[in-house]
Amino acid sequence: MITRSLAALAASVLLPLLSACQEEAVVARPAPVTLTVEAAGHYCQMGVLEHDGPKAQIHLAGNPAPLWFTQVRDAVAFTRLPEEPRDYIAIYVNDMAVAKNWAEPGPDNWILADDAWFVIESRQLGGMGAPEAIPFGTREAADALVRDRGGRVVRLTEIPDAYVLAPVVDVTGPQGTSGAVAVPPPAVSSQERRSAGLPGRLHAPAHEMENL
């Protein structure tokens, strides 16, 4: 009887501790990785540092190296595409509120995407020439860009799927000004395009970025 009672007491103490350890292991979040010249974009396979504007890195469970993205838009699209893995445990984006300038966001300038404020639908295109979801660490900094470049401020979960999943085409305005617009997504998925040897997503030609 005493042995049974001791066993029950031990179980009541150890099981919560074991459960807590398991929960801690599940929510463990890796630290952001310094961006170097070796980093290549997950979709375009081009050097991430070859492009201006904010970047992103996504960490998958069990993978010591992050996936790199030349535009934040692509990282958000990664999380929305049904064919991509869902076991990501951290998404980091550049905080453009403290970036040196548009061309150099900083190799160690990272914040969690969940904590960021994003400016979408602005006239400021991303480093691949596509409409960008521009991240800021503060709402005030995001509002300042909206006043200067248009658009609106949203949180990560509020970014519309169509904004990041639609292919992008280059257009020319009435005075010969160039820009980029999103068009409805094609029936072919990015995985199918990659299998066929095509780019994972469509970008407009690179545009010259302006400093924030």
Automatic annotation (TrEMBL):
<protein>
    <submittedName>
        <fullName>Nitrous oxide reductase accessory protein NosL</fullName>
    </submittedName>
</protein>
<feature type="region of interest" description="Disordered">
    <location>
        <begin position="177"/>
        <end position="212"/>
    </location>
</feature>
<dbReference type="InterPro" id="IPR008719">
    <property type="entry name" value="N2O_reductase_NosL"/>
</dbReference>
<feature type="signal peptide">
    <location>
        <begin position="1"/>
        <end position="25"/>
    </location>
</feature>
<keyword id="KW-0732">Signal</keyword>
<dbReference type="Pfam" id="PF05573">
    <property type="entry name" value="NosL"/>
</dbReference>
